[in-house]
Amino acid sequence: MGNECPICDKHRGIGALVGPVIYADDLVLVTHRPLTEGTPVPGYLFVETRRHAPTLSTLTDAEAQAVGWAARRAAHALHVELAPEFVFSAITGLSVAHFHQHVFARPHGTPASVPWTNADAWPDAPHLDACALGELCDRLAIHFVTEH
Ligand SMILES: [Zn+2]
Predict the structure, then answer these.
(1) Of 37 and 137, which is predicted with more confidence?
(2) Alpha-carbon dihedral sign for residues 78, 82, 83, 87
(3) Phi, psi of 136 (to 5 degrees)
(4) Can you give the pLDDT at residue 3?
(5) Which of 87, 101, 102, 116 could cross-link 47 (Cys pair, CB 3.0–4.6 Å)?
(6) 9: CA distance to ligand 1 center in Å?
(7) Distance from the CA of 146 to the center of ligand 1, in angstroms?
(8) Percent of the chain with pLDDT over 90
């Protein structure tokens, strides 16, 4: 695929979606939501296939295994490092037709009125600057290379 896919571009280091890489192998990448979307709430991760596969049903068995492993590791890493109220995960694919799974923390103290899909709707939510984002990603990355 060429330049028309923003996630393929992201994997080549191009475009507004480029975020810090927490884990990468031949099949999947795990990244944190980037600063290009403002100061992100801590712990909003994306698990993406390296290959341009548009949907969950188009993954190979090997890709699906890699995605499942990475999503589980991502959720575990978020639980350990952030101790959030919840870790949510969703696969929607409405905006970009390149497989990506959202794995994200709901910060402690999030009011019940804030939708699970949108922590940004909470004005008092914690946010990360560039330094804190880098430090968090370094801590999260450790959980992908150690035994659990
Ligand atoms: Zn793509």
Answers:
(1) 137
(2) negative
(3) -60, -45
(4) 57
(5) 101
(6) 7
(7) 29
(8) 78
* CA–CA distance, 114 with 32 (Å, rounded to integer): 21
Question: Six-digit token pair at 110?
Answer: 């999030």
- Compute, in angstroms, the gap from residue 52 CA to the centroid of ligand 1: 4
Nearest of 46, 115, 103 to residue 78 by alpha carbon: 103
- Ligand 1 centre distance from Cα of residue 46 (Å): 14
Give the C-alpha separation, 47 to 59, whole Å. 13
Distance 23 CA to ligand 1 centre (A): 18
CA of 81 to the centre of ligand 1 (A): 30
Rounded to the nearest angstrom, the distance between the alpha carbon of 98 and the centre of ligand 1 is: 5
pLDDT surpasses 80 at 37: no
Q: How confident is the model at residue 146 (pLDDT cuts 50, 70, 90)?
A: confident
The per-residue pLDDT for range 67-91, each reduced to its tens digit, is: 999 999 999 999 999 999 999 999 9
